[in-house]
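User: Before I run my own analysis I want an independent prediction to cross-check against. Here's the chain; please return only the structure tokens and, at the end, one sentence I can use as a sanity check.
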Amino acid sequence: MSIRSLMRGAVLLLACAVAPLAAARGAPAEAPAAKPPVPLLWKVTGPGDARVYLLGSFHLLKPTDYPLSADVEQAFTASKRVLFEVSPEEMESTQAATQMVQTALRRDGSELKRDLDDATWQKLQAYATQNKLPLAQLQGMKSWFVALNITIGQMQKMGLDANLGLDRYFMAQAKKAGKQTGGLEDMQSQINLLDGMSLQEQRQMMAEALDQAEKGDAQSLMLHDAWRRGDDRLLWNKMAVEMRQQYPQLYQRINTARNDAWVPKLLPYLQDGQGGTLVVVGGLHLLGSDGVVEKLKAKGYKVERVCTGCKPKR
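Assistant: Structure tokens:
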């Protein structure tokens, strides 16, 4: 397990908002017929008509990941509103990119090269040459920003597109249907998660981004395939278990603390009279003992997986 794996799962929504190659927004283009992905979808039942549908997103997808399953579309239809990690208004604002770049600027007069060991710096130079990365312009940026750009760029090379992510899709669908939308946190708080990484964590993130680029980023493809299969166990084991053991403080900031902050914000939607609410967040936030699903179960709510194609747990 790597720092980059958890960062991909937990904070990729931020990267999608400001990735340098991301462009047009809206619903995905028409895709070839394919078997719909098995969704990471749970229904939380409150009193009366209150229902909260929790949908685990993969923030960069392919045209062939659409259409979605009938279960997901039915949850959207049954919901009055749709909530995301960050509101559509913030995601679509040009200020998001400005916020990120301003936070990522080095303000102490140092250069990126200072943060990296010789081997990693040489790898970065080679990558920049091969991929036309403007390294001279990036010398004034922090390591996490450059590593994140490498990661997103590699995923886009494999056909994974931020504009086709599940979040983007439902933002467009909600706007089209005139549904209410909202966010569970703001953009700056997500940026601060990245900027709060220690120098050691940033160095490892850079080294792993370059290492995975050399290997064709097989890990991203593996995680995408697991998401398509609705394999919650594999996603949890590959994206969180070892990280929780090896980097407990980083894991606490990126995953557990955010889940703890989100649950109280969901409780008002589980009161009688609220109707249905669809919540679309990174899949990691719904999984495992630290996930939103288990936290709502612990509060006494009935929570069940909604998944026609799921295999029963052993």
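Sanity check: The first helix runs from residue 3 to 18.
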